Each structure stands twice: as C-alpha cells, then as structure tokens.
Amino acid sequence: MSKKVRKETIAVEGVWPVGSYVYKAPLLYQELLEGFKQKKIIGSLCTGCGFVYVPMRNICGRCWRKIDARVTVSDKGTVRSFTLSQAVKRGQVKVLGMDPVEMGWLKEGERLIMVLVNFDGTNSKYTTILLNAKPEEAHIGMRVQAVWKEKPEGKLSDIIGVEPIK
Length: 166
Ligand SMILES: [Zn+2]
Hints:
The chain has helices at 2-5, 29-37; strands at 41-45, 52-53, 69-73, 76-87, 111-119, 126-129, 143-148, 159-164. By secondary structure, the protein is mainly β. It is globular and about 45 Å long.
C-alpha cells in the first residue's frame, strides 16, 4: 500500500538521541566481555539445533532449549542490513556512549553507517557501525572485519565497529 502512495523512499529530518538511552546488560554479557579482553568473540551454541548466538543467549529462540555451550567465532563477517544517518554534527549522536566526531571515527558532516553483521560461524546479527567506508560502498553481503580497540578493557566498545576486508 505505501509503495503505491510513495514510490520513492523519503528522508525525514529529525534528531534521535539514541545515546541518551541506558541499557542494563544481561549478566551473560560478562562472558562476552571477558572474551573481548583477548580480542575474541564468544558465542553461545545451542546443542539442540546448532545455532550460535552473538551476543549470547540463555535460551534458544528457535528450539527453546537452555544454552550452556560456548564457542569462539571469527571476527570477520558479512553485512546483512545497514542504515545511513543524516550528516552527523559534533555532540548530536553517541555510539557506545561516545561521540563519533570527537573520537575521530567520522568527520563533521559525514554520515554514520549502522550495520547488522553476521560474524562467521554465527546465526545471529550483531549491531555495530561501519568504519573506513563511504556510504555508497555499504551493501548487503559486504565482507567486513572487526576493528578492535588497541587495548581492550572488557567493554562493548572494545569492538569500535567493522571495516571492509580488502
Ligand atoms: Zn536451538
């Protein structure tokens, strides 16, 4: 129905201060973050159906079994979906609690590329940002690798984002 009304995608000006939300991470994230300290991505493996989740889950969403098994997965993966922001201004957006312009990940006026990545060996999607790529280069199926903080501290921000594999 909406495609009949509007054939083209429209852009709507607006501010969405996602950085102002505070999430309480599940206890399970402690294991994920312990792995991050060693630049490792640990997933939970459902021994019932073989699905691997990153971030981990306690219960399998497919077969409802309790999940106890762990596997280390690759930090390389494939972009399954992406979203482009409007041009970013300093102080306007926060990613993992940080201002991407202040951190030097983006220049003022560039657009943030949010991606859902399926790390190799997983069946789930991890939300992060695409770095070192132009918006027009982003595509579904793009091969990427994690960009790790030089000295990981056991925080979600240890993976700053992903970048294209060249
Ligand atoms: Zn399962």
